[in-house]
Amino acid sequence: MSNFREKLLANLDKIKQNDLHHQYPSKTNDEIEDTLFQNYRTELSNSACSNPPDQRQTETPKDDSTIDSYRYIPRFHFELPKTADSLAQKLREEARTLFLQKRSKELLDNGEFKLLWSLLEKHHSPPLVGDEQYINYENYCKVGIIAGEKFRRYLTATTFARLLASSSNPGKISVISLFNYTMRKVWLQQTRIGLSLYDYTGQGFLSESDMESYILELIPTFPQLEGLEKSFHSFYVCTTVRKFFFFLDPLRTGRIRIRDVLTCSFLDDLLELRDEEIPKDAQELNWFSAPSALSVYGHYLNLDKDHNGMLSKKELIGYGSGTLTPIFLERVFAECLTYDGEMDYKTYLDFVLALENRSEPQSLHYLFRILDVEHKGYLTAFTLNYFFKGIQEELSAHRAEPINFDDVKDEIFDMVKPIDPTRITLKDLISCGHGETVVSILIEFHKFWAYENREVMVTSTASDDTHNL
């Protein structure tokens, strides 16, 4: 860096101001300065390069006509700096950090929220509706003026109109609704800035390692995770990150959009851990809670009979009700990432998320890939029969009456109603609304038996209810 500075100063000393304007008659002072900077940076890069001159990578010089065109057509594309250009990389990283710090200072803090609440209470528009305060547009504008410039970006006419649309009081909006809306908006902006700090490329995406770093630093801020042992932190991070990537990256690109993270419903579940007290039943339903994460990992350890940290096909048979067919599990190990024929914890988490959320499109995408034995992008009668053989084997083992495959096949096609009557695509499976049922009766005997005897079970339940009455 010091060599570059010395080089730049030396070149500037050699050039007089009049000479610069004579050399670049159509450019402004800023454009001349930028051109000189680019030329000196290229010269410095070339001098540091050890390759022969004919192999050096230099920037294409811009002629005067190209630069002049920027006066009329705004530049809309900026290439990312090359990896070898450390100066540009550092400059971009520093600029992004300063930008995020500036945006963070624009957000309201706790003291400013207290001020906003007191102003809204003071200038609410009587009368009260029950115990709830309302405010009209005139007083709303007055609060914005008194509060100051920092608050006006939140107290806009658009915000008032949006809240008015759902208000039960004509011409007025609820004070508590306005305050909660403002808090939610600030919270989203804070989260966006926090996530962007881990987006080292600055393109609005997070890799798996980026997300892991973000979650790891969040753990100490969650009161609900205070009792979590440090030795379990890495497993907790893995459990948490897998849910984000399973649902937000079903095509396995290795990255997720920050925008998708902000708009997904389970981000609220994660940040719910900031609350001091959460009911026990709510914790059990929250994938990100300590009891839930420990339960998932505990089941994994219980399945690992040989205690080698991995699961074989034989060990995975014990998952859930223990009635997943061997044919289905064979396909799982054929399609999913394994190590010497065994499944690690990360692959197991994808498996669990798919089976526990079978109605979700991402889960159906995962399971469809396993069912698509021929890799044709659709399921045929042959495919359905291939998996139903596993169910028939279970029926035989339980000495149950055999089921005719053609009846099951016709029922599946009737449920799905595919565009092509001879094949079922992933799109057909998702749009029909019965994807969970179709998949379940092909891969799990317990689910098939419940479906096959659903009418008997409904009648039995109705009889029990009548008896209780």
TrEMBL record:
Coiled-coil parts of chain: none
GO cellular component: centrosome; cytoplasm; nucleus; spindle
Keywords: Calcium, Cytoplasm, Metal-binding, Nucleus, Repeat
Biased composition (Basic and acidic residues): 56-65
Region of interest (Disordered), ranges: 45-65
Cellular localisation: Cytoplasm; Nucleus
Entries under Pfam families matching the protein: EF-hand_13
Annotated GO MF terms: metal ion binding
SUPFAM superfamilies on file: EF-hand
UniProt keyword Repeat, yes or no: yes
BP term (GO), one: cortical cytoskeleton organization
The keyword Cytoplasm belongs to this UniProt entry's keyword annotation: yes
Occurrences of domain PP2A regulatory subunit B'' EF-hand (ranges): 200-276
PANTHER family reported in the protein's UniProt record: SERINE/THREONINE-PROTEIN PHOSPHATASE 2A REGULATORY SUBUNIT B'' SUBUNIT GAMMA, SERINE_THREONINE-PROTEIN PHOSPHATASE 2A REGULATORY SUBUNIT B'' SUBUNIT GAMMA
Listed name of the protein: Serine/threonine-protein phosphatase 2A regulatory subunit B'' subunit gamma
Species the sequence originates in: Anopheles culicifacies
